């Protein structure tokens, strides 16, 4: 990796911790927990990581996480990611987790939460790597299930900064979750939402107007709505863009077609992130490098993207200054 990108201090704002499950760890945990995987080898797992769209990815993603059973498993998963983050000079990370994908398999909420939380605390202690946790609701599950999940999370709210919305986007508009997000905001959570990844610009408007989000996750389809572009430029609501993800899930045919430079040139608060790095071929450094190469980004543009992420992070004014 190019030395500047590897060494420059970085902030990651869009990372699903379950999306950091590398084939080797899936295999190891499957063995440890006696879970039968539908793959004969680690190589076969890696070969299955080819996707036509978001839905085809989600099927592999949810099947893979069946190996996550114990608090130790969640700790090991999170710790492996944090070591990777440390190697890539990531100084602050905001991670999503999908509790419903685990509680619906019979794994209690606190098992998931404590495993992740303790690894995050260890990284703060050992590496000075700061973090925030974001609880994502699965939008293809009923809003009542999201509300129940929010209630399960309340005892742990000191360790959870925000709620988000992810999973299959088409036909699951943010408006379905208006009341859940209102409750979350009353309980003191910030809000974010995946919108405009595969779904239309109207979902981005709904996320802003109904869910009152602080950031839009992905948001790349904003390009289709000039009024929305003007609004994003004016308000500087950040977009957490994930270039390798967008190419792997065929939001764009190839990296050279990605619109993030266009959005950056329009003065929109674009950030670069990795989404599900184990599945999409790279962590934050690889995402920055792939975008830089294909879109001919200058070093000044890379610096702007990194500064946008620091500005968009859920951190104190003091920590923001430290990160700059
Ligand atoms: N869950 C994990 N990765 C996701 C993505 N890119 N979009 C929606 N839901 C997800
Ligand atoms: Zn995502």
How would you describe this structure to a colleague?
The protein is of the alpha/beta class. The chain is built from 17 helices and eight strands. The chain has helices spanning 3-7, 23-33, 42-47, 54-64, 71-87, 99-103, 109-127, 143-153, 178-186, 201-209, 226-235, 243-248, 260-265, 277-280, 284-295, 299-312, 317-323, and strands at residues 10-16, 90-97, 130-138, 162-166, 190-195, 215-218, 239-241, 270-272. The chain has an eight-stranded parallel sheet with strand order 1-2-3-4-5-6-7-8. The two termini are 22 Å apart. The model has no long low-confidence stretch (mean pLDDT 98). The chain binds adenine and zinc ion. Adenine binds at residues 16, 19, 54, 61, 166-167, 194, 197, 245, 275-276. The record marks 218 as: Important for catalytic activity.
How would you summarize the topology of this molecule?
Layout: H1 3-7, E1 10-16, H2 23-33, H3 42-47, H4 54-64, H5 71-87, E2 90-97, H6 99-103, H7 109-127, E3 130-138, H8 143-153, E4 162-166, H9 178-186, E5 190-195, H10 201-209, E6 215-218, H11 226-235, E7 239-241, H12 243-248, H13 260-265, E8 270-272, H14 277-280, H15 284-295, H16 299-312, H17 317-323
Parallel strand pairs: 1-2, 2-3, 3-4, 4-5, 5-6, 6-7, 7-8
Residues 14, 16, 166, 194, 217, 275 line the site of zinc ion (ZN).
Summarize the structure.
It catalyses: adenine + H2O + H(+) = hypoxanthine + NH4(+). It contains 17 helices and eight strands. The chain is α/β, with parallel strands linked by helices and 324 residues long.
User: Percent range for helical residues?
Assistant: 40-55%
Count of distinct strands: 8
Major β-sheet annotation: 8 strands, parallel
Alpha-beta content class: alpha/beta
Instruction: Write down the oligomeric state.
Output: single chain
Q: What percentage of the residues does DSSP assign to strands (E)?
A: 5-15%
What's the order of the H and E elements? Answer: HEHHHHEHHEHEHEHEHEHHEHHHH
Low-confidence sequence ranges: none
Give average pLDDT, whole number: 98
């Amino acid at each position: 990796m190019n030395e500047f990108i590897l060494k420059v201090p970085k902030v990651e704002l869009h990372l699903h911790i379950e999306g950091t499950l590398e084939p080797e760890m899936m295999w190891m945990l499957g063995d440890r927990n006696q879970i039968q995987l539908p793959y004969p080898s680690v190589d076969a797992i890696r070969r299955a990581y080819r996707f036509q769209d978001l839905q085809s990815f989600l099927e592999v993603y949810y099947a893979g996480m069946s190996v996550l059973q114990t608090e130790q498993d969640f700790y090991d998963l999170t710790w492996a990611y944090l070591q990777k983050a440390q190697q890539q000079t990531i100084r602050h990370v905001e991670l999503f987790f999908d509790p419903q994908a685990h509680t619906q398999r019979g794994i209690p909420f606190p098992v998931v939460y404590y495993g992740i939380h303790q690894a995050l605390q260890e990284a703060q202690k050992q590496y000075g790597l700061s973090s925030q946790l974001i609880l994502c609701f699965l939008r293809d599950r009923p809003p009542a299930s999201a509300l129940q999940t929010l209630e399960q999370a309340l005892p742990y709210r000191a360790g959870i900064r925000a709620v988000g919305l992810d999973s299959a986007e088409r036909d699951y508009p943010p408006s379905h979750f208006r009341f859940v997000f209102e409750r979350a905001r009353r309980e003191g959570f910030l809000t974010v939402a995946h919108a405009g990844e595969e779904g239309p610009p109207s979902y981005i408007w709904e996320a802003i107007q109904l869910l009152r989000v602080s950031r839009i996750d992905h948001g790349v389809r904003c390009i289709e709505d000039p009024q929305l572009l003007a609004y994003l430029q004016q308000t500087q609501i950040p977009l957490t863009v994930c270039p390798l993800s967008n190419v792997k899930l065929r939001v764009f045919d190839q990296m050279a077609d990605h619109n993030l430079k266009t959005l950056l040139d329009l003065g929109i608060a674009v950030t670069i992130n990795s989404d599900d790095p184990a599945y999409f071929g790279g962590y934050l450094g690889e995402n920055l490098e792939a975008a830089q190469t294909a879109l001919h980004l200058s070093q000044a543009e890379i610096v702007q993207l990194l500064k946008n992420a620091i500005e968009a992070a859920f951190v104190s004014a003091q920590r923001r200054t430290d990160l700059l």
